[in-house]
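Per reviewer request, we include the raw input and output of the structure prediction for the construct analysed in the revised manuscript.
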Amino acid sequence: MDTANLTREETAARSAAVTVHRIRVELDLTGAPERARTGFPTVTTLEFSSTVDAIWLDFIGEGVQRVCVNGVDQVIVYDGARIALSGLVDSNVVRVEAIGAYSRSGEGLHRFHDPVDDETYLYTQYEPADSRRVMACFEQPDMKAEYTFVVDAPSGWEVLSNQTPTHTDLGVGVQRVEFAPTLPISSYITAVAAGPYSRVDGEWRRDDQSVALGVFVRRSLAAHLEAEEILEVTRQGLDFFTDAFAYPYPWGKYDQIFVPEYNLGAMENPGLVTFTESYLSRGAATDAQRAARANTILHEMAHMWFGDLVTMTWWDDLWLKESFADYMGAHASAVATRYHDAWVTFAASRKAWAYQQDQLPTTHPIVADITDLEAAKLNFDGITYAKGAAVLKQLVAFVGDEAFFEGARLYFAANAFGNTTLDDFLVQLSAVSGRDMSDWSAAWLQTSGMSTLWTETEADGRSILVQTDPRPHRLRIGLYERVDGRVLRREQRELDVVGERTEIDLPDADLMLLNDDDLTYVKARLDARSLATVEESLSAIDDPLARALVWSSLWNATRDGELAAARYLEIVRTHAPAESNIGLLTGVLANASYTIRHFVAEASRDQEQRRWVETVWSTLEAADAGSDAQLSWARAFATASAFDDGHQEQVRALLDGQAPEGLVIDPDLRWQLLTALVTTGHADLADVAAEQQRDDTGDGRTAARRARSSRPDATVRREAWDSAWNDLALSNDHLDAEIGGFRAGGRRDLVSGFDDEYFARIGQVWGARSIEIARRLVAGNSPTTACYRCRRRESLRRNP
């Protein structure tokens, strides 16, 4: 068997036999700046009780040098993933000395050399099972322990972990930092970061509680940090969650660090939350981008309770943290920060992710059957996050806001620093709501798929609400009418829908929204009259949440083949230029681009692409100077110009400084524009070299790599293909750049010849590379064809 792929059964047996008390981890990172040095010394001392005389520790690294059990050195038995232990007694002390490997994949201890200042930056990322790349451990969430970290690092570096330092010894060019022991936590949420990071300090106070706040970023990005906004949202979140959960923040300090080449949006390590640097703009940023960052800050903060304080026993119940954090991120944003329209973006964009994944053959229940770690890694998806959050929103509508939060308070009080399963939460919620939650759980958490909702008129004139795949819904139906050029809600009805057909008595309306206020998780179709109103007046709907639901309904119907792609694109061209909500606009622009590439028939694609570029350019020219809309349309123009070169002169003019008044052409937008020119053959390697000289940063070098691989030449695309599959030295971001270049411009004429090779490679790469890198290769290089609909129909026949 693959011993790196831990199974649910064997980890359950291990936790039944072993109780962990304390773990001390000593890391020597003094050699990290030496690029030729691939590994680092790591020493782990574990104190635990055992009812068996033999067990194993998890470790993946360059090698194990010594294993000492209760003061006696053992013969090292190590297969690259597991260290065998024998001779255990009731109470044990085990010391493991090993060499860990610096990571370039974002898994374990990632090392980044910044070309701007030639400094080295380190951070850890473990979920679900990569702490074993840094320390010998019991790599499973239900074996919590107190962790003490001791880190040797170069002098002058910030050295960070979950807790605050208790002692620092300074030597010649080096320092040793020892941190306070943590409260009991799982291995996957321990964390270390080290490097010459810039820091901004703050504080949050509530009554007698004081929490030190820190925000960190590498020095070359310090000017773009927006630390005060981040600290403000952090304080607002701590205020909200302290009141909502009635359990004081338990983890001491609250540091947040933005790191390069990060695989996730963020990670909830208690006391040291890590974020991708993508949340920091190197130039202009829209309010929607800041809202997304605030949402993520609050999502991770919710994890301090949902996930860190109370942790799932095994990855089957991943939803117990991710679904709740996704819900809480939007809820806290809406009620505690200035981003009051968080549920608008959730309805139109976040749920679109869930709807799409819930219709794939790989769909699964929110509470999934996770047999091993490989399955766990693949379960961090739109169903666990966004569908789970949408279902929780339906639950709140079902039991009431106060009952939901009171259930959460009881859940934390009963299970603090422990591990739980689905039943542990439902018991508390049933107690406070007075409702048996078993039927709700069976319908929403333990089945896959979704309902579709629409209205029909019977021969006798009765109106029937029809749903496929019936589930219980608490929903509202909104009735809207056109008044003086506006579309306003005239009336709203609330009802419970259970079966396949529900009789409803509703007056006529210009627009009828079947899931008004977005209380439930369902694809709601527009009736013919409503669709006609939308075609004429979508942008005249006053309420942004109602517009979000309309945009979502149109997109779902287009994806499902019920609304013609050309008709959808005509609605977008008519009404997107007037969309005032930037979160909605960003999603609509992305969906329009996707529609052209995947849902439009090949014979019409060039024409639709040309019409889209014309719309984008004309709207950009007409946008208010310096507005978020102007920036959003400029980015859409750069994206569209990679598929159609009809405006290559305008693209070049933007790069040459001839931009509409108020438009900031920041480094990232410049790379988008230049890559579009390269992809269509209107820029060359000399242009790329000149732009890299202008932006010789880590991001600039990654963008230059992608641009070089985007040249419309078969030999270049072959080189990008070979590099992606075979160059093991590529970092995660550089791998993405090669894949992006290979696929640039949708040029099937340049890449279709690799389809057979792709299918020959994927099995091998999945077995040979880490899960993160294998996922990028398998998903990123997957063949796409012009006959998407043909393949979709065939897929539906095989998987009805």
